[in-house]
Specification:
36% strand, globular, 90 residues, 1 helix
C-alpha cells in the first residue's frame, strides 16, 4: 500500500493515520523490548488501542474487527491496551 503510520501530533490523545511514507518524525516509532510502541518524539506516550466496541472491517474470513488507535500516556492501567507482539502463521 506504500503508506506509513503517522501520529497527528506527539501529544496525549493524538490520533494515528496512514500517510505517504516520508522521513517525518511523527512516522517514527520504537517497538521496545517491553512490548510497547513509543513515538520517537515522546517516549512517555504509547500506541494504545481504543477501549470499547469494535466495528467490522472490510473483509476477511472471519470478518476482521477494527478499533481506533491513539497515543496515550503509558500506564499500568492501560497496559492491556498498550502491549504489542508479533505472531507467525503455522
Amino acid at each position: 500500500f506504500d503508506v506509513c503510520m503517522e501520529a497527528a501530533s506527539n501529544t496525549p490523545s493524538a490520533t494515528l493515520l496512514l500517510s505517504r511514507c516520508e522521513d517525518e518524525i511523527l512516522q517514527k516509532f520504537n517497538w521496545a523490548s517491553n512490548g510497547r510502541i513509543y513515538p520517537f518524539s515522546n517516549n512517555e506516550l504509547c500506541l494504545t488501542i481504543a477501549q470499547g466496541k469494535s466495528r467490522d472491517g472490510g473483509g476477511g474470513s472471519p470478518v476482521h474487527l477494527i478499533r481506533n488507535l491513539s497515543l496515550e500516556f503509558c500506564s499500568d492501567t492501560l497496559q492491556s491496551f498498550q502491549m504489542w507482539g508479533a505472531r507467525s502463521e503455522l
